[in-house]
Fold this protein.
Amino acid sequence: MSLLRNKTWILALAPITGVLFFGAAFGFFYRGVYEPPPANLVAYQDAISQPYPIRRHAEIPVQRKGLLLVDNAHATSYDENEISGLLARVADRGYSIEFLGDRTLPPFRPEERLALLQEKLPKADTFAVILPRVDFKRAELDIVDEFIRKGGRLLLIGDPGRPHDINALAEEFGILFQEGFLYNLVEHDLNFHNILVRDFSPDEVTQGLSEVAFYTAGGVKSSGSQLAFTDENTFSSMVERVEPFSPIVKSANGQILALGDFSFMLPPNSTTVDNDRLISNIADFLTNSDRRFDLADFPYLFRDEVDILLGDAGLFEVGSSMKSLLGANNVASQIRGVEDVTRDTIFLGLYEHSSNVAQYLALAGVQIEDEILTPFTPDIARTGTSLVLLHESQGRKVLVALAESRQDLGDTIELLETGEFKGGLLSDNLGVYQVSTTEPPVEQALLP
């Protein structure tokens, strides 16, 4: 009974002991009610991190005539509005801009892409291929090779942050876009992917640059020249660093510019440090082409208004056909009676009118006698034939088309219109054609 009373007393005392214990602990540790310090209000502009300055490049661009063709036929992984800043700079310099293909259409088949290149590239001065997801096939590469051989310029842009298959085209010219992205854990613009480049080789593309920010860049290798170099703290996610990486390179002939980053052109990245100046420099590169046009490029070889001269008034209908052909290709022309040696000119006549253009024939080594004499062939019978000659001097272009008869001359205009004239070219600037079915083909006439 005594033990039971003791347990009852202990159980009754336990709640009181607990209250006293927690009361003592509260009194020992309590330091009063927390009162937060007054809030410091931060202005909106101070809350936005801007570690690198915004710079806009002021310029007075040099005006030039030409055409930039932009690839849209190889399933490119960008929207046209994303390159509007670059295209605006190109247009400010006087160049026209056309697109190869329509992004709103279904994907192009290989033969459709080839046909587009055959149609569009011969009239371009520069060609931009940006983030293509479909590679260039051999037949397409041959067309671009010919374009480069004639002095055209090519811009290639890849980016490890977006899908692309650009190396088939790039490797044709000794350029390789490396796998992986570049990063810098020591110094960057907000994110280690956003690398800074301050080491440049002298070039038109790097003129005036002291610092450029790239946001998803990859390295680019070239058998030509490297134009920008990363620092010792910049590495690649895929490629071992044995030397500085280069996100900007040129081909050995200087006609191809390749960049391993696309995002630097997008606002607001485009105004960080010297990015805006780099975009202007790229526009200068694209609008300073030395593209050479030969007879195979007709009618795109004419950029200014063309004078059409006739051997006699009886050829007016043929002259009208030529004028229509040029107009269909956005080349303005006028039929005139007197030659202006300061203007591009097309002369249409019969062989009997050849004395009117004797100086151009002589410079090409061509003689019109009882037979046609050229530096490239045995003598050719005049009957049923025609010839087309292109002469260029000091920027002026003169195209001469002569034939035995008015009908033959009209048929020659049709060859020029359809492009079939290219099959009769004897050189870059001379073609001879069998346009009458009453005579054997020119190929047979050339046989000994």
Notes: The CA atoms of residues 26 and 34 lie 15 Å apart. The mean pLDDT is 87. The first helix runs from residue 2 to 29. DSSP finds eleven helices and 25 strands in the chain.
